[in-house]
From TrEMBL:
The keyword Metal-binding applies. This is 3-keto-5-aminohexanoate cleavage protein. InterPro entries: Aldolase_TIM, BKACE. The keyword Phosphoprotein does not apply. It comes from the Bacteria. Its cofactor is Zn(2+). It comes from Marinifilum caeruleilacunae. Keywords: Metal-binding, Transferase, Zinc.
Length: 274
């Protein structure tokens, strides 16, 4: 079985210091959280960026400042910027971090009702456009899917040449408006991707660690972090992203799965460090 790739989603665009005071906003805070996660065993940092007051932004210069600062402390870590942005942003605004030519970036494969009147819009043409830009820039997309229909969309656009093989999926499970975080639904998504594809599971809230165990056993990979869950256990707030990663490492050790370092993660995912 392949070694386990752990991704740390250190801050997200929605979670705030009101949820957990250790959620990072500033460049220095992002570096702190990335380094703690990396030292604990994460080989990928999934990155959103904020202004110092916590406002989400896709500004290319802000991404560059944070990415450069993280790489100064963790030179070999894989940084995976998000192209999700925030509700209402244009396609080109969301794509700004891909202009920095990262090794990976996320590509959301469908529209989702986040709650209330908030709609995370990803039309078919948006997905095609993002796919074309990532191919043009030599960036491997992590195909974020919140439901089975989004896998179907990715597979159809792969056949049309907008997404290249081998594909790497991220099953984001337990989000309002998306698929639940049950083992039944994990099995459904897992059985719907090609045999040569890899996948990561991001369980939201209480689903984070049960789904991590399922992925560890199945041979998949795991994402944890403040973006998805700010608690280390029921009723106990996590002190850092590193603490969340450490828990996954303990679970993997108990289940006999070795942890991939960044070089091994690149080999598994077919990446070449830029």
């Amino acid at each position: 079985m392949e070694k386990l790739i752990i991704t740390a989603a250190i801050c997200g665009a929605e979670v705030t210091k009101e949820h957990n005071p250790n959620v990072p906003y500033t460049v220095e805070e992002c570096v702190r959280e990335a380094k703690l996660a990396y030292e604990a065993g994460a080989s990928i940092i999934h990155l959103h960026v904020r202004e110092d007051d916590g406002t989400p932004t896709q500004d290319k210069d802000r991404f560059k400042a944070v990415m450069d600062a993280i790489h100064k402390e963790c030179p070999d870590v894989i940084i995976q910027p998000s192209t999700g942005g925030a509700v209402g942003m244009s396609n080109d605004e969301r794509l700004q971090p891909t202009e920095l030519n990262p090794e990976m970036a996320t590509l959301d494969c469908g529209t989702l009702n986040f709650g209330g009147d908030e709609i995370f819009e990803n039309t078919e043409n948006t997905i095609k456009y993002f796919g074309e830009k990532m191919i043009e820039r030599g960036i491997k997309p992590e195909l974020e899917v919140f439901d089975k229909s989004m896998i179907d969309m990715a597979l159809r656009l792969h056949k049309k040449g907008y997404i290249q093989s081998p594909m790497h999926f991220d099953f984001v499970m337990g989000v309002n408006g998306g698929i639940s975080g049950t083992l039944r639904d994990f099995s459904f998504l897992r059985g719907s991707i090609p045999a040569d594809a890899t996948y990561t599971v991001a369980g939201i809230g209480r689903y984070e660690f049960p789904l991590a165990v399922a992925a560890i056993i199945d041979g998949g990979h795991v994402r944890v972090g403040f973006e998805d869950n700010t608690m280390i256990a029921k009723g106990k707030m996590a002190e850092s992203n590193g603490e969340l990663v450490e828990k996954v490492v303990r679970l993997a050790n108990e289940l006999g799965r070795e942890i991939a370092n960044p070089a091994e993660a690149r080999e598994i995912l077919g990446l070449k460090q830029k």
